[in-house]
Amino acid sequence: MSEEKLKQLIEYLDSRIRMLEEELKLLKGLKEIMEDKVRRPSAEQSKEEIPVTLSEVKWRSYPSGEGEWCFADELPESFIEELRRKGIMDVDGYRYVYKRLSGGKEIVARKALRGL
Description:
Layout (H helix, E strand, L loop, with lengths): L2 H37 L9 H8 L3 E2 L6 E4 L5 H10 L1 E4 L2 E7 L5 E7 L4
Antiparallel strand pairs: 1-2, 2-5, 3-4, 4-5
């Protein structure tokens, strides 16, 4: 095989490698999106499933010990949309309150109804 043919073959292989690396990068991104969907609760959860999901969230306690909070994106989208509209909701023994912080981050606070 001539030197020119070898150079052409090397160029072809380089272009194929770049193309495959780009495809691999896209596939990894798609996989991350799918894994994130699996980790997050479904936005299409039924009303019966939401209390179970709410109890599974990693709630953070307020320093005062009165109530808990979590980031809104850790909760089902359907619940957050309804909470945004209503502002306050009572579900399964807790009162949930939607809050938007000054930096734009959304949180949900909750307190046990028996303590209210």
